[in-house]
């Protein structure tokens, strides 16, 4: 009888009722759960849960019963809100909206709702009465903000449902605009707040006292993110700021010190950071203990949102811009400046330099070094790692050109070769691009955390990060070890893995650890002459990689592209994905730029300010100025690419004709990557190129004809013109079309 009961239970579980896919996602997000957390609880893959929420697949026993149980409990906590009936069935065509009186200091700021998305109306229509069917109202249509001291943000005893931090219930940021003379703050989720502030100092006070804006810290010892206020052009005018900067102000990157708004801030005892009042201004008062009083301003009309990464985000209506930046903030972090600055700040946010110690004999805690971080003090790089003009090189002759034996040069590929006769007979050139290549290069990478140690005649250790002076000119690509088996290749058709231009080394040169380790992997002995190694090391970038990977995958899933798609479906889903939601597509671009810019910022060069060679520049004072970490990531990224092209060549006899950073171009008989990438029974070559969304996998970059390629090279009289630079759309420019 018990077997019959078990069979009945299994039958019922197989039909456990589930809410619609969109409701599944709403319930998970309402409780603050990530896809990874749900997947771990149900012992399935992240992509599986994502597919359930997208309606692409349905759960099966035994996971279905557990999933239904979870959703049922969440539905009890967060019931769906029924549409609010309209107060007035008549909607005037041109309603007159009287300006609401500014609330007094004792009155709460009134919340409103605003439409979002591509079809959102201009800012001044946000206050018009709308029918519920036209614009869905959020679960909480009104909120009030209470008074708080400017420098104190004490958390209430209990957090609200869903795990949201009550101190920041209005989200991480707001876009401030002026409509019909009324100042409005458009927040994440469609919330709109009245802003009574009549000056920039008052706006800062309002933000800290009543705005309830900010973001909880990303790491235990870290700090909460300061609120971000985005000022539209209309808001700039309202607060006495120029809508655009003059040419001189643009070059300086800031307003002149005598500007009236800066004087207002000074009189109110607010300070600006050293970069002054520019497109990304930070306004603060010195911290008192652990309490902070700081607001970040972003001014799109001053080019705060670089169009190379944010496209036309700065031109969006306020509600849409709040949605776009809010999505980025939730998945990456609240922007702290350019995507490059934010990428670097994310590293520090995930690995704060200090933490509180255990209580001493008197029960007092002290600040101490946070293990696994870069610390709070900068460290000197090795001389070979220093870029030209660095103070370590001040004794060199003024126009001295350092040789490979004097300087570490780990850069991305920029290599091309003429097509062979056989390749010229093929009709197509197909480009494939590695997803989040530099993020993949950072994943699991052991990097130095402290200062280097100089060693003479060291024994190479592939687990020890550092810079090595070694001769790799004896490595012959015509015969290499693959999976411990010697393999013959056409070395003339391959770039060297040891130089960015793909040229074979001519003698001793400086290399990062991943480059030297690859020479050993290919079957060749190495004998370093000297090295600068870092015994204090760790996988500093792992958390950074994980956060950016998850942000990328989640946003692409929102655009209909999933990590577990078969190759053909993946290619189809990637075709035109940006048009499905142009705003989310901008978020994807910004996430990618955060990766590349963050890595590049590790070796930031002087930026004017009267700098002269041999003198220190501002970036050198940062603990995150680490050219050795940048070199290691780029080295590993380039080696990852070379490893794939070597395995592909050994298996198929096909060689790339051009490589630019993370894009490789092959001659092909067909226009699709599937026409030359080896798949057997749906499975790719182990260790070779694999189509897919995850970082390190590849997507289709573009296809052109072989005749196009030969014509371009003939037109520019450049037999080795890098076709990977132009493969995407065939337009020949000087712009890097890499990721």
Quick summary:
With 739 residues, the chain is of the alpha+beta class. A hairpin with a 3-residue loop joins strand 3 and strand 4 (191-194).
Description:
This protein is of the alpha+beta class and 739 residues long. 29% of the residues lie in helices and 15% in strands. It has an eight-stranded mixed beta sheet with strand order 1-4-3-2-5-8-7-6. Strands 11-21-22-12-25 form a five-stranded antiparallel beta sheet. A hairpin with a 2-residue loop joins strand 21 (658-660) and strand 22 (663-668). Helix 3 crosses helix 4, helix 11 (318-331) packs across helix 18 and helix 15 (513-521) packs parallel to helix 19 (627-652). The longest helix has 26 residues, at 627-652. 39% of the residues are buried. Residues 82-110, 115-163 and 735-739 have low confidence and may be disordered.
Output the keywords:
739 residues; alpha+beta; eight-stranded mixed β-sheet; five-stranded antiparallel β-sheet; 20 helices; 29% helix; 15% strand; globular
The biggest beta sheet is recorded as: 8 strands, mixed
Q: How far do the termini sit from each other?
A: 62 Å
Secondary structure: helix percent: 25-40%
In round numbers, the mean pLDDT is 86
The side-by-side strand order for the widest beta sheet comes to 1-4-3-2-5-8-7-6
Q: What proportion of the residues form beta strands (DSSP E)?
A: 15-25%
How many β-strands, per DSSP? 25
What is the rounded Rg?
28 Å
If helices are DSSP runs of H or I spanning 4 or more residues, what is the number of helices?
20
- Structural class by sheet pairing and helices: alpha+beta
What is the subunit organization of this protein?
single chain
Unreliable spans: 82-110, 115-163, 735-739
Characterize the overall form.
globular
